[in-house]
């Protein structure tokens, strides 16, 4: 299930597409960062690139590996991920709708 359809079903009264787009992006970035942290232990092993163990290449290999982990986490998140982004969107949307209802009824938030 794509994130956009989750918003459409969770917030049928939402009128501002730009705000929804920002919410989707923020939720996907949040999920991506969580996935990156979960994937970090997978790359903590020895030099899996078949290098000769030269210490001068350690920082470059770490950078390449970090970019790879980031790319994988972003791809997983944008493809539907683990559902974390959907839950964030659902929760934020529900709280926003609750605040709007309170404001309409004159209740302090």
TrEMBL record:
Residues 1-20, 41-63 are annotated as: Disordered. This is Rod binding protein.
